[in-house]
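*** Residues and shapes ***
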Amino acid sequence: MFCKYILYNSDTTVTPKRQAYVYPKPQWVVQKNDIVYVMDVSLRNLYHGKKTTVVTRDISVEVDLVKGMADGQRVTFAGKGLSIPGQAPGDLIVIINRVDYPFYKQLSAGNLQCEVEVDHKMAQSGGDICIRHPSGNIINLELLPGEIPSPGYQKVLSKMGQMSSDKTKTGDLYVKFTIYFPHANITI
């Protein structure tokens, strides 16, 4: 049996900003002779790995995002910082800032978690749910009748998480279920 619906993101609402003036955070700052660049990277790009170009002032470098890089990880390019006469040139330091992927949260050690809302009928009688994985693949979850015993139940899909940066271990995917009661308009 194949799914009728593919879940991408359970929350599609956009909340407006309350402040009249919102200043963006700087992409790069100078500390002594070093240039520190904060690079926003999506979970999908960290999952696959990607090469991207960083441009600051007059400097352009290619950063190789390795599969499984962690949030806050630093990549240093020696001698690519500021050149001040009489001093050694500084470094360009790129800090990885993981931006949350819609529908997924990254847990520790390469584990991922997504939250799926099912109605009470599916929780009781079972059915199929399709989820788009950060890899781009579609995962078909077959729920058996009564498999979801209570709200907050998690199903663990082993080795479906993110690969570690040293490429020795792949994390798990935790699918957390919430149950929706449409007639009472209650989600548990």
